[in-house]
Amino acid sequence: MKCCEVIGYVHNHSSILITSIKMQILYQVIYIWQPQLSLMFRMLLFLYIFLFFHQLPTKAGNTLCRMMGDPKYPLLSKDGEIIIGALFAIRSKETLPSFEFAQKPQALSCSRFVVLKALDQIMFLKQTDILNENISHSASCECLSNRKDYPSFFRTIASDYHQGRALAYIVKHFGWSWVGAVNSDNDYGNNVMSIFLNTAQKEEICVEYSVKFYRTEPEKLKKVVETIKKSTAKVIVAFVSLIEMDLLTEQLNIQNITGFQLIGGEGWITAKSLITPNSFLVLGGSLGFAFRKINIEGFSDYVIKSFWDTAFPCSKTEGNSSQDTLICSRYQDLLTLKNYNEDVPEQRYASNVYKAVYAVAHSLHSLLNCKEQVVEALKKVNFTVKFGDHVWFDSTGGAVAHYEVVNWQQDSNRSFQFKPVGYFDASLPPDQSFMLKTENIIWAGGQLEKPRSVCSESCPPGTRKAAQKGRPVCCYDCIPCAEGEISNETGNLHKKETPIVKANNSELSFLLLFSLPLCFLCSLTFIGRPTEWSCMLRHTAFGITFGLCISCVLGKTIVVLMAFKATLPGINVMKWFGPAQQRLSVLAFTLIQVLICLLWLTISPPFPHKNIKYYKEKIILECSLGSTLGFWAVLGYVGLLAVLCFIFAFLARTLPDNFNEAKFITFSLLIFCAVWITFIPAYVSSPGKFTVAVEIFAILASSFGLLFCIFAPKCYIILLIKKKKKKKKKAIQ
Known about the structure:
The structure is a single chain. The protein is of the alpha/beta class. Helix content is about 45%, strand content about 10%. The protein is built from 22 helices and 18 strands. The longest helix is centred in the last third of the chain and has 44 residues, at about 690-730. One of its GO terms (cellular component) is plasma membrane. GO terms for molecular function: G protein-coupled receptor activity.
């Protein structure tokens, strides 16, 4: 190859390499001729050769920088038309060409049905200026949420941002504090892994290792397998594409590395192509997030009839010509699958395609009405499809994340299946976003008991934790307590990480537990000789503490109701009632009661009073209410909060059991309302000192009702049921 050809060819690939070749040639010329050249002549020659070679790439570039070959799919179009292009991944495995760039690269050779082949068509669409507005059904990379770089990109699939967080939440949910992480070394894997690691750190999850590889890097794959082999973490978070997962599973099988609990993303968790008797030794029991299966009416019939008749005319047996016979012979292998439709329900992206087509149709309708441009029309898309889903796009152009949690299982017939065991809804607060049926899960190795994955076990009584230098906080040594000190707990006493505590809004529960003792204590202010201060304190303390208590219960009830009853399209109601808003609502409800009490104390406060009305021979020392209206306003406000709370709890009583403390709240408020309704006639008719006894009884009875009805079921589940399970396990062993 001539020198100019080398430079011209390389110019199409790397300008840095061109400069390198130029300078090497110049250096060699000067070096060889150096003894014969004067200084001036050498300088002139250097300048001449430099200018000569500087012109070569430009000339070569003009002739070589061009499209090679012709478009495979010619189109007919004219100005003013709107051309819609659709890209679908059909095959999942391809044979890669040589990347030595010594000759024109060969086309990708696909060997198994779904992605790189699609790139060819993307480039074609780019070349023909079709791809001006994009709408995707399966591109989930978080990088595409950047509206600065992709202002006209919309998708009917959720961003992987939610999946990255969900992976951390499910690990936290099962109490695994020591995990390994593997991801594809590309934008798809790196973005999600970054989100997962960040969320895991916030959730106090320790990651033993985080490794990555790409399908064309066998050496990196070997290092990944070696890392897994040496690790102590029993749980692996694997966010990889189907191709990488296929390669990883193959290597784990070869080296007989099994017994790890795999947590996966939608890229591979429902891939039937991964299922083989050997691979199930590695992947059996895997848990992961998949897009929901949605039955599109008529789609299955279309696949086995209309589609085949249209796409493959040879499926009709009418053609008799020799040309038809020749063409049809190409499709013989495919035609054997004509009546096969068992995998149609597993086409989890089909609903996204359906939504995308309708979203484009709605935007084009607005365009044809001359209302706005396509991009602006897509921003305002808001409609409901046949199977009940609402279609709309958030500020990043994405859809709301709804995932199904699936579990790799083998049934009694030794057939494999992806069994749904729960769901994840990103529109809900983190502590309520999961619904998992743990009892239906079969874990890695076919085990029925959840695996443990911790760096260090809990320290036994009489010892304490000592951090291991240079290791994560999850890793520690248990050393004996110092002389004169003792530890008799294992560190699992406050149980705030248990599913039931997290599912029942732990923050408001703790605030409610704080307010209930105050309710009990306020009854003490009714005991003893009335003074000016004690008279003002007893009723205001009662009003404020019970106002705080019922406000907490009301907040908990509203959260449950909104989480499951909010179905308005395009509105994420829970973002308006997150943890911050819940705190503010409790504060606001309580402040209203504080203001009522302040007005009462300012206008006409309670005061000590000597009552001689009922007994002529006795003087009863009591507290006069001052303003009767103030007292009934305080009591009435507590009653109003209780009634509202009862109504909301009653409406929410039939919601799923995993989140349903509403039935217990309903029962507790029945007791609360019954006590205070009977208090009114008893208070009015009770003379003298019996008035105080009636008030104390009402305070204690209603407080005990709230405490036992709301918290006793939780304590029973957390403490007693767990102990029973442990006893059963010991008996089985």
